[in-house]
Design brief:
- There is one protein chain.
- The protein is of the alpha/beta class and 416 residues long.
- It has 2 domains: 137 residues, Aspartate Aminotransferase, domain 1, CATH 3.90.1150.10; 235 residues, Type I PLP-dependent aspartate aminotransferase-like (Major domain) (Aspartate Aminotransferase, domain 2).
- 41% of the residues lie in helices and 14% in strands.
- The strands form 3 sheets. It has a 7-stranded mixed sheet with strand order 2-8-7-6-5-3-4, sandwiched between helices.
- The longest helix has 28 residues.
- The chain starts with 8 loop residues before the first helix and ends with a helix.
- It binds pyridoxal-5'-phosphate.
- Pyridoxal-5'-phosphate binds next to helix 5.
Length: 416
């Protein structure tokens, strides 16, 4: 898809009430990979739900009926945005929880000596859940990053796939390295081997909502609280796989849809309704930038994804170019953002200063940023980086501005 239309950043900032609060606005927020701000559409949906329909949903009285309808509508809209069906989407409290429940369910098909591939590039959420299956007799095989580039190489995966491989768990985008792994190609290879792929899209989705059918992933999860929504996570699974997974919920609901059987305790009502607000936000972006009617929800998302990724590429390169010019800085991951090779999640370390020292200086100067291992400690171990001090991570999304990045650079310049 080619379009020369550029993201209207002033319009975007106006959608987020946080930016009109002087106190919040004084700070530059660059810890988006930890959790993003929410647009007004999400806040309004939450307020309305709390005011009018904060009751147990799905009963026959008016407020309860509406509550259930709002939750279903939110899930339906989000399913359309990622090209999934309603029955294929499970909304739970976190991605860690979604993977934990999924691994419990899949564990019933795992027998001694089955092999499971995990990476050392993933966040622990998509490693620990699978490593636990060692207790069932599974053999855990690690797909290791190239220690020079911090990237996963597909050729290395090919070498460790065997007829015994049941599951390959891999991140779409690392929350430290930032590289977008070619999940579509990986899924193809994994399927040719007769194995299942579980992809972690947490660090990918905020920069472009995935088309799960096009990627052909078996399972895919991402955290909605990093994708402009409340503290929830979305798990997608192919319906023919989900429907055969054993019930993880109360015994008496075992005949229900996977979004019940694989969601013990169910999803948070008011927050699930907020998915309507996220969808509205993306539609508002579409309507503001494009004056052609596009009825297909996924098609509108494709346009918005393109707008966002071109914009994010531009602001990421400002920081990457600056850091690349410093010989005492080690950037973890690719040094240039182009053709969707990476997310604007930029991690680095300094030769002569700790990551904490850098962050302390930035925080003192009103820049919201963080250092550490961000629960992806295995990458740091492979790269020989202190696990506690970790990396400095500047993570942007499409509401960050060029001037914010220049202010970050001004502050970095005082300390690098
Ligand atoms: C890449 C990645 N995967 C998984 C997670 C875990 O997500 P949650 O906090 O929803 O469990 C995170 C959280 O930071 C993450 O960055």
């Amino acid at each position: 898809m080619s379009t020369n239309i550029e993201l209207d950043i002033d319009f975007i900032r106006k959608q987020f009430p946080s930016f009109s609060d002087d106190k919040v606005n004084k700070n530059i927020f660059l810890e988006n990979a930890g959790g993003s701000y929410v647009p007004k559409t999400v806040i309004d949906t939450l307020n309305n739900f709390m005011l009018k329909t904060k009751v147990q949903p799905y009963a026959d009285f008016e407020s309860s009926k509406i509550a259930g309808q709002k939750m279903d509508e939110g899930i339906k809209l989000f399913s359309e945005m990622i090209n999934a069906n309603f029955e294929e989407v499970i909304i739970a409290s976190s991605t860690t929880m979604n993977f934990y429940v999924l691994s419990n369910a899949l564990s019933e098909n795992i027998k001694a000596n089955d092999e499971i591939i995990v990476t050392n590039q993933d966040h622990e959420a998509n490693i620990g859940a699978w490593r636990r299956l060692e207790k069932k007799g599974a053999k855990i095989i690690e797909w290791k990053i190239n220690n020079e580039t911090a990237e996963l190489e597909i050729n290395d995966l090919k070498k460790i796939l065997t007829p015994k491989t049941k599951i390959v768990a891999v991140t779409h985008t690392s929350n430290i390295v930032g590289t977008n792994n070619d999940i579509k190609q990986i899924a193809k290879i994994v399927h040719e081997n007769g194995s299942l792929i579980v992809a972690d899209g947490v660090s990918h989705a905020p920069h472009g909502l995935p088309d799960v059918k096009d990627l052909d992933v078996d399972f895919y999860a991402f955290s909605l609280y990093k994708t402009f929504g409340p503290h929830l996570s979305l798990l997608y699974g192919k319906y023919n796989l989900l429907k055969n997974l054993p019930n993880q919920n109360h015994e008496f609901v075992s005949d229900e849809l996977p979004n019940t059987t694989l969601n013990p305790g169910g999803s948070n009502h008011e927050e699930t309704a907020c998915l309507i607000g996220i969808s509205e936000y993306f539609d508002n972006i579409y309507n503001h930038h494009f004056n052609k009617i596009e009825n297909n929800h996924r098609s509108r998302i494709k346009y918005v994804n393109k707008l966002i990724s071109s914009y994010e590429e531009k602001i990421a390169n400002i920081l990457l170019d600056y850091l690349s010019g410093k010989n005492n800085v080690r950037i973890i991951g690719q040094r240039k953002s182009a053709n969707k090779n990476r997310a604007p999640t930029i991690s680095f370390i300094l030769k002569n200063k700790s990551s904490k020292e850098i962050c302390d200086h930035l925080v003192k100067n009103n820049i919201g940023i963080r250092n550490g291992n961000f629960y992806a400690w295995r990458i740091l171990k492979a790269l020989n980086i202190d696990l506690e001090d970790g990396v400095v991570r500047a993570s942007m999304v499409h509401y960050n501005t060029e001037s914010e990045i220049y202010r970050l650079i001004d502050e970095l310049d005082k300390i690098i």
